[in-house]
Amino acid sequence: MASNDNELGEIELKDNELIQAERDHKIRLIVQTIDFEYCTDCGCDFIHIFDGPNGNSKSLQKWCQNRPDLISTGNYLQYIEMQTDGKKSYRGFKAKVFAIHKNDVCPGSGLLTKESGTIKSPNYPKHYYGGIVCDWTITVPDQKRIRIKSRSLNLESCPSCSSCDHIQISDNASPDHPIIGNWCETPFNVISRGNTVQIRFISNVNDVGENFVIEYQTVNEDEVCPVSPTSPSSGTLTSLGYPNGNYPGNLNCTYRIKAPNDNQVVRLEFTHFELAACGQYVSSCLNCRDAIQAIDVGDDMKLTRFHPWCSNDPQPTHIFSSGQNLFLNFYTDKSSQDVGFRATYRSVDKNL
Question: Which UniProt keywords apply (predicted)?
Answer without folding.
Answer: Disulfide bond, Repeat
